[in-house]
Amino acid sequence: METFSDFQCPACKQLYLGTSRQLNDNYVATGKVFAIHRDFPLPGHAYSRIAARYGRAASQLGRLEQVEQVLFENQEKWEQTGDVDGTVASVLSPADMTKIRALIKNPGIDAAIEKDMAIGRTYAINQTPTTIIHYKGQTYPVVGIVSYDVLHQFLDQLLSQ
Amino acid sequence: MMQSSPLNLRRAVILLGRIFLGATFVYAAYSKILHPTFILHPWFAFQFAVKANLANFSGEVETFKFLSASTSSLLAHTLPFVELALGLLLLIGWRVRYWLTGVSLLLVVFLSVLTRAFLLHLDIKDCGCFATPEPLNAMTLVRDSVFLAAALLCTYFAFVEARKPHPWTAKESA
């Protein structure tokens, strides 16, 4: 299951808070679903790209979960001020932040984001969040917010096929 | 002798108007029921897609901040099917004046809600009108006003035409 997301997109925040966390607890942690976070920063959002860089750098340190949570939960604050660094620093240790600040300057981070976006374009994605569910050779694209109740019914039926 | 209805200007306007409005309403319903998540099979995946789309539309209705969450959800799960029914009935062309009245009333409600949101400067990223996400702006209001003007004109003409005896049932003059 690949979720193409933008940290500054309000619908992505809603999907994350309302669906993704429960999905992680009940399907990803139990090994029923393999979830991949894909960055798809939209050009209309001023701080999407920088937030994606921090997220990507955090994932290299195994800290994506914490950074994803703090960025989505404080989206309204940092999208006003642009203080992505301060928001991320509030949940990570100074040592991790030093590493992350170095990592985001690495061109490889941007290349990885571009790679995710290129994958998204192969699915003709034009809005976030978009979730692509793969199962037994079939692909099911789910666009927009989907509630956990609706998604879990679908996943249960899909997994029982 | 039986003859077909003469195609005067009023009838031509009604014909074009009902095809235009009918197609628009069917497309609006299709946009809400089958978009943005478009999965046709298997059946359970189709059901999931429709549920997800209607829930998505419910979220869009909520952004207009004129109904509670539960009422928005009820409206979102009803309105697309009303649009579909009205659109199909207009395309079929049976009892057109009644369905045109329904379409006109619905467009009055749409335009009122959109105008209110526009005047309140609500941040509507997608008005939920059609399949392509479309932020609410002045052009949305102009477009809906054109739809409403067309619907009102067609409704008026349809009632005028309905008062005239139909050529099939009217007595033939000598």
Describe the structure.
The complex is a heterodimer of chains A (161) and B (174). Chain A has a single domain, classed as Glutaredoxin, CATH 3.40.30. Helix content of chain A is 58%, strand content 12%. Chain A contains 8 helices and 4 strands; from the N terminus they run βαβααααααββα. In chain A, β3 and β4 (138-143) form a beta hairpin. By secondary structure, chain B is an all-alpha fold. Helix content of chain B is 69%, strand content 0%. Chain B contains 5 helices and no strands. Chain B has helices spanning 9-34, 43-62, 69-92, 96-119, 138-163. In chain B, α1 packs across α3 (69-92). Chain B is globular. The chains are: A alpha+beta (161), B mainly alpha (174). Chain A binds chain B through residues 10-11, 14, 127, 140-147, 150-151, 153-154, 157-158, and chain B through 35-39, 44-45, 48-49, 51-53, 55-56, 59, 125, 133.
Q: Can you lay out the helices and strands and say which pair or pack?
A:
The complex is a heterodimer of chains A (161) and B (174).
Chain A (H helix, E strand, L loop, with lengths): L1 E4 L4 H19 L7 E4 L8 H13 L3 H10 L1 H7 L2 H6 L4 H10 L3 H16 L7 E6 L2 E6 L4 H12 L2
Parallel strand pairs in A: 1-2
Antiparallel strand pairs in A: 1-3, 3-4
Helix pairs in contact in A: 1-8, 2-3, 2-7
Chain B lengths: L8 H26 L8 H20 L6 H24 L3 H24 L18 H26 L11
Helix pairs in contact in B: 1-3, 1-5, 2-3, 3-4, 4-5
End-to-end distance of chain A, in Å? 17 Å
Instruction: Find the CATH topology of chain A.
Output: Glutaredoxin
Average predicted local confidence, pLDDT of chain B: 90
Which parts of chain B are unreliable, with pLDDT below 50 for 5 consecutive residues or more?
A: none
What's the CATH H-level superfamily name of chain A? Glutaredoxin
Order of helices and strands of chain B: HHHHH
